[in-house]
TrEMBL record:
Record localization: Cytoplasm
Pathway the protein acts in: Cofactor biosynthesis; NAD(+) biosynthesis; deamido-NAD(+) from nicotinate D-ribonucleotide: step 1/1
Protein name per UniProt: Multifunctional fusion protein
HAMAP family in the record: Iojap_RsfS, NaMN_adenylyltr
Record's keyword annotation contains ATP-binding: yes
SUPFAM superfamilies for this protein: Nucleotidyltransferase, Nucleotidylyl transferase
Known catalytic reactions: nicotinate beta-D-ribonucleotide + ATP + H(+) = deamido-NAD(+) + diphosphate
GO biological process, one term: negative regulation of ribosome biogenesis
Cytidyltransferase-like domain ranges (all copies): 5-156
Length: 293
């Protein structure tokens, strides 16, 4: 089996990524192309869009492309994962597979800085997608394209021409969204308007948690949580917010907005599970790890 791996931050995905995948499928003799979203790059401290949201965008972009798989290994680890680790994991899953590793020309020139670079070279054949001026070695596989857009530039100068149509509205809404304080204020106001009680907001930024902010509110009864959910959808979707996943229940409803998690709980469930204590303990654990205490 021949497998290509194409990894990146995809923060956000753009038409250049789309073209790279299309050309790789045309040029390379492969059975599968794994698109790997990094949870956190070794060369960055954070991303703008949370990992589940970036993976969801990619899934929509490449929907219907039979050989393309959104490979969640790195995001599942919830930590920085060096490329060599991902490659070895793929080789464990697909015994004796030939692995192509697709990288941009800027990444290719920086390869010697990568974790266990020599070992990586022994396991993969590199395929380069040029961007700008690039003078490759003669024996290097090159995709016949030149991608002159980067995710960082796209975040700074949002241009719809470079955002795939399938995710255009979601991407534009996310990167032009209101600052976090305004978003939280809108959520709290919407909950208060519909009689939610004991609303608490927990800032989890930098605490090794999978979202930046957690909102917990107490409902007045079993059906009230579902009513609050409907009201939040009405109030927030018009403001460009995305509901990535909703687990709705009479006693406990969880709303995943990518970087914000909302818990709507009956009084009995809130007392029983005591999420506030868990989140406070998480904060204390991270303080100890960082030597703050």
């Amino acid at each position: 089996m021949n497998i290509a791996i194409f990894g990146g931050s995809f923060d956000p995905p753009h038409t250049g990524h789309e073209l790279i995948v299309q050309k790789a499928l045309e040029i390379l003799d492969i059975d599968k192309l794994l698109v790997v979203t990094t949870y956190l790059s070794p060369f960055k401290e954070s991303f703008c869009a949370p990992a589940p949201m970036r993976q969801r965008w990619l899934a929509k972009m490449f929907e219907g492309m039979e050989k393309v798989e959104i490979f969640s290994y790195e995001c599942d680890q919830k930590r920085q994962v060096p490329t060599i680790e991902t490659v070895l994991h793929v080789k464990h899953l697909y015994k004796n597979a030939k692995i192509y590793l697709i990288v941009g020309s800027d990444s290719f020139t920086a390869l010697p800085k990568w974790n266990r670079y020599d070992e990586l070279c022994s396991h993969v054949e590199f395929v380069v997608a040029p961007r700008g001026a690039f003078h490759p070695p003669e024996d290097l596989k090159i995709l016949p394209i030149n991608v002159n857009i980067s995710s960082s530039k796209l975040r700074s100068f949002l241009d719809r021409r470079f955002i795939p149509k399938s995710i255009e509205n979601e991407v534009m809404a996310f990167y032009t969204r209101n600052p976090m304080d305004s978003r939280i204020e809108r959520i709290v106001t919407a909950l208060s308007d519909k009689k939610a009680e004991e609303i608490q907001v927990f800032d989890m930024t930098g605490k090794d948690y999978f979202v930046n902010t957690v909102v917990i509110a107490t409902t007045m009864g079993e059906r009230h949580g579902l009513s609050l959910l409907d009201h939040l959808k009405t109030e927030l979707k018009g403001a460009g917010e995305s509901f990535l996943n909703v687990d709705a229940d009479d006693n406990w409803t969880v709303i995943d907005m990518g970087d914000i998690l909302i818990h709507l709980m009956t009084p009995a469930y809130r007392q029983k599970y005591n999420l506030e204590l868990f989140l406070k303990e998480r904060e204390d654990e991270m303080k100890k790890v960082r030597g703050v205490e």
